[in-house]
Amino acid sequence: MAASGEWWDEEDGRRLPAGEVHAWEPGTNQTVCGLSLHRSRLTRLAGVEWRDVLPESGGAADAVRRVCPCCAATAGRPDPDARRTWRRVNPRP
Fold first, then answer.
1. Which of the four, 3, 36, 63, 93, has the lowest number of CB atoms within 10 Å?
2. Model confidence over 52-89: pLDDT tens digits?
């Protein structure tokens, strides 16, 4: 995952995300939603799992202000306000 800021947790002794967080896969130079890490000045935090930065998890989400909705939908948490407008009833083989 990548974040716009970071803070140091003295209990665990590790860096944790702060500010706006985005999903990021190691080995790439951009977030899942397409932002460039360098141009957006995002910090890579490879040791933090995506599920730990979600506010409902409580884990590393103490200083997280915003979770990118595009990254959340792609990485596993759909937007609660989003409604499906259509559903395929009879898919092609």
1. 93
2. 888 777 767 778 888 898 888 887 755 555 555 666 67
The overall average pLDDT reported for the chain is 82
The C-alpha atoms of residue 70 and residue 13 are separated, in whole angstroms, by 30
3-class state of residue 36 by DSSP: strand
Whole-number Å distance between alpha carbons of 15 and 2 = 12
Nearest alpha-carbon partner for 17 in 29, 75, 50:
50
Cβ distance 57 to 51 under 8 Å?
Answer: yes
Q: Are strands 14-22 and 43-44 parallel, antiparallel or unpaired?
A: unpaired
> Is the Cα dihedral 37, 42, 46, 50 positive or negative?
negative
Q: In what order do the strands lie in the sheet with 43-44?
A: 43-44, 2-9, 14-22, 63-67
Using DSSP bridges, classify how beta strands 43-44 and 63-67 pair: parallel, antiparallel or unpaired. Answer: unpaired
The per-residue pLDDT for 54 is 82
